[in-house]
Write a structure and sequence with these properties.
Elements: H1 24-36, H2 41-53, H3 64-71, H4 75-88, H5 90-94, H6 110-121, H7 133-142, H8 151-159
């Protein structure tokens, strides 16, 4: 792999901060990806950006505005791809970053989920034909199972279990046995 440059000095003449110089193997790999087309759209767009921005002897060396116009993307995407190549390397550009934590923390951990299921499977409250999602919502907070929960969260949690008494009313599909006559 050839050296990739980054110019932090403000005294130098204005030039590209993140220069894409691909070696032959990297170009071959990108061209094969595009030919096969078996990758996700954003990865293929990044591959096209790298090939167009490549200033090596095999590359086209296009400027950002020409790449934006040709690929129908935006300037910030082109800049991010260049920057990621220089700072993180070739493989980082083409792979998806995995999250260290989920986007939103789960409200019901294993123990809380078990208590919710036990509550939903218990005898329904007096005056009600069954547990409603709204009633479960208020009851899990009242019992201190969780600090807060929405009826939608409770529905999703119960829908993922096969033992739920209210599964039929939450939209989960579980075929019932037909009564034989």
């Amino acid at each position: 792999m050839e050296n990739r440059s980054w110019s932090p000095s403000p005294n130098r003449p204005r030039r590209k901060r993140y220069v894409v110089k691909l070696d032959r193997e990297e170009r071959v790999r990108l061209e094969a990806m595009l030919r096969k087309g078996k990758h996700r759209g954003p990865v293929l767009t990044k591959a096209r950006i790298l090939l167009k921005a490549d200033v090596s002897e095999f590359g086209e060396g296009w400027n950002d505005s020409r790449i934006v116009e040709a690929l129908g993307t935006n300037a910030s995407t082109v800049h991010r791809v260049r920057k990621q190549l220089v700072e993180e390397g070739f493989d980082a550009v083409l792979s998806r970053k995995s999250r260290a934590l989920p986007a939103v923390a789960r409200i019901f951990d294993g123990a809380a989920e078990a208590r919710l299921i036990a509550l939903a499977c218990s005898q329904h409250p007096e005056g009600h034909a069954r547990w409603s999602l709204r009633f479960l919502e208020s009851k899990v907070v009242e019992l201190g199972i969780v600090e807060r929960a929405s009826d939608t969260t409770i529905q999703r949690t119960l829908k993922n279990t096969r033992s739920s008494r209210i599964a039929a009313s939450t939209g989960s599909f579980r075929r019932r046995r037909a009564a034989h006559s």
